[in-house]
Amino acid sequence: MALATAAAGSGKLLNRLRLKQFELIKGVSEGLSFRQLADRMALSQPAISKMAREMEDTLGAAVFERHRDGVSLTAFGQSLVHDARLIVNKLARLESELAELRRSPIRTLRAGAPSYTGMSLLSRPVALIAARHQQAHVEIIDGIANRLFDMLMAGELDFVIGSLPSRNLSDEEAALLHVEVLYPDEVRFIAHRDMGLAGRPVALEELLPHSWVMPSKDSLVRSALRAALLKKKLPVPPATVESSPPFIGAVVAEQPGFIGLLRSDSAAYLAQRLNLSLLEVRPRIPLPPVAIFRLRDADPSALAVELFGLVRESVETLFGE
After folding, report:
1. Would you give per-residue pLDDT tens digits along the chain (321 residues)?
2. Phi and psi dihedrals of 28, rounded to 5?
3. CB-based contact 189:248 (threshold 8 Å)
4. For the whole model, what pTM was predicted?
């Protein structure tokens, strides 16, 4: 990272850089002018300009590009945006957590997980944590992988449990992550037990005449199915029902005739609880593995370590390993 490179060449950073200077980088990256930042930070505009010049002197490079319409970041300044956001967001969160720590000895744990993982892997571990540590506060943020990873990179989450986002991570982002793979993932198919599809290999084309219950069109599962069908030159079936994993399971369980399309954890979870058949469809359709992602330079708290252990137990129970 650019900031690490600058640090290697100068011992002045820790003594001379200030938090408000990182707020400047973050604010300009969000499209704010020095005047707007002065109002936000309760400072005069000359004080903001002086702070920017001092930062550039310390780093030995131009960070801001001044022009008639306002200010923007130079290429070097752009390379500092991730570090600036991480520092500002972590300190803002620390301020909130310190207030909580005065009331409780256990800090808030913020985890990100797509709905399918939150339902199948985190429900039992979170319930156990709540029972064991009555003063603990665990917050599960539901969302798509891209949004959750942005929050993790910004220091707004302690960890994410799920698969990699659909967008490609940069080498710099990948280097920041500590990854523990929980299991390889794949597209799985569920059906009513009365359909007679369980206990034997099922060809993908055999399922096409049935009605389909699927996640949204832009989901990774749906995209993977589409690619597999096109590779075999098979038609892509329309979704009779399009919904989230719990409702997909409920529709399939209601009556024979529907094929549900899910990730492996949701499929196994719903098959066990709703007495559904988990089909052995060929060919298998792989998905990115499910893992625990956290920032490499942020050691997990004792509460997070305990939760990780419970999640591993959930994986073993879910897949019978």
Report:
1. 445 444 444 455 656 777 788 888 888 998 888 888 888 888 888 888 888 888 888 888 899 998 888 899 998 988 888 878 877 777 776 666 566 556 555 568 899 998 778 878 898 999 999 898 887 888 999 888 888 988 898 888 999 999 877 677 778 788 889 999 999 999 999 999 999 899 999 999 999 999 999 998 888 899 999 999 999 999 999 999 998 877 888 888 888 899 999 999 989 988 988 989 999 999 999 999 999 999 988 888 889 999 999 999 999 998 874
2. -65, -35
3. no
4. 0.68
**CATH number for the domain formed by residue range(s) 185-287:** 3.40.190.290
Q: How far is CA 109 from CA 112, 126, 308, in A?
A: 10, 10, 12
Q: Where are the domains of the chain?
A: 16-79, 104-184+289-319, 185-287
104-184+289-319 CATH: 3.40.190.10
CATH number of 16-79: 1.10.10.10
How far apart are the C-alpha atoms of 133 and 106, rounded to whole Å? 8
- The 3-class SS string of the chain reads CHHHHHHHCCCCHHHHCCHHHHHHHHHHHCCCCHHHHHHHHCCCHHHHHHHHHHHHHHHCCCCEEEECCEEEECHHHHHCHHHHHHHHHHHHHHHHHHHHHHHCCCCEEEEECCHHHHHHHHHHHHHHHHHHCCCCEEEEECCCHHHHHHHHHCCCCCEEEECCCCCCCCHHHHHHEEEEEEEEEEEEEEECHHHCCCCCEEEHHHHCCCEEEECCCCCHHHHHHHHHHHHCCCCCCCCCEECCHHHHHHHHHHCCCEEEEEEHHHHHHHHHHHCCEECEEECCCEEEEEEEEEECCCCCCHHHHHHHHHHHHHHHHHHCC
